[in-house]
């Protein structure tokens, strides 16, 4: 099946339910073993990327990541393009529940046009790489005024074979409450869909915003690669 067909075949009702209930959802494997290997192999080709970030230099963690340059690989573009429409519908229902005025375009091209008008023109899909001892501090991927509420991480390496440790982390902070953590053990090719910065949580007076950050726990052995899909572009 094509990437488009794989995404369309997902249980989007179940995904939306999980996003409302806990702020994230996981999918069955979307990328094949071969597609994951091809993306990992790209990491050595600097001509495919616009920049490389050494996490330790900026105290983001230990590891590195690279932002793709235009044109991004076809598999990455297909994931970004075809996952966006169903997520935009969910995001708009989130905004409605929160009483927020913003509404997101129904297609990715519309969102990217909004980004361009705000000076955000750099592609944001990225590959992340960690060796033993590496980790990623809790953070949010915000690159300007425009920020789409949902994003994806696809696990490219095989846990238990290519690496150990390195779990995906989500931490949610609700007002006047202690933080709540989730630990996600993703298999190769699987995707986790999660909140970019905040999500609606039902309270006694309607919905309120709960802030969400994400990161990666320490890799204990081996080498870990992942693909990040952020829908808004960067300045």
Structural overview:
- With 235 residues, the chain is an alpha+beta fold.
- It has a single domain (3-229), classed as q2cbj1_9rhob like domain (Jelly Rolls).
- It has helices spanning 3-8, 12-22, 33-42, 74-98, 108-117; strands at 24-26, 49-54, 61-62, 64-68, 126-131, 135-139, 150-155, 163-165, 168-173, 180-184, 191-195, 198-203, 206-216, 219-229.
- Strands 1, 2, 4, 5, 7, 8, 11 and 14 form an eight-stranded antiparallel sheet that branches. Strands 3, 6, 9, 10, 12 and 13 form a six-stranded antiparallel sheet that branches.
- The longest helix has 25 residues, at 74-98.
- 33% of the residues are buried.
- The model has no long low-confidence stretch (mean pLDDT 97).
Question: Could you outline the blueprint of secondary structure elements for this entry?
Answer:
Layout: H1 3-8, H2 12-22, E1 24-26, H3 33-42, E2 49-54, E3 61-62, E4 64-68, H4 74-98, H5 108-117, E5 126-131, E6 135-139, E7 150-155, E8 163-165, E9 168-173, E10 180-184, E11 191-195, E12 198-203, E13 206-216, E14 219-229
Antiparallel strand pairs: 1-11, 2-4, 3-6, 4-5, 5-14, 6-13, 7-11, 7-14, 8-14, 9-10, 9-13, 12-13
Give the gist of this structure.
The chain has 235 residues and is an alpha+beta fold.
What tags apply to this protein structure?
eight-stranded antiparallel sheet; 235 residues; six-stranded antiparallel sheet; Jelly Rolls; 14 strands; alpha+beta
| Overall shape | globular
CATH topology: Jelly Rolls
**Annotation field: number of helices:** 5
> Please, how many domains?
1
The CATH architecture would be Sandwich
Q: N- to C-terminal separation?
A: 35 Å
Structural class: alpha+beta
CATH class: Mainly Beta
What gyration radius follows from the Cα positions, in whole Å?
Answer: 17 Å
Low-confidence stretches: none
**Percent range of helical residues:** 25-40%
Say which CATH homologous superfamily is assigned: q2cbj1_9rhob like domain
Number of strands: 14
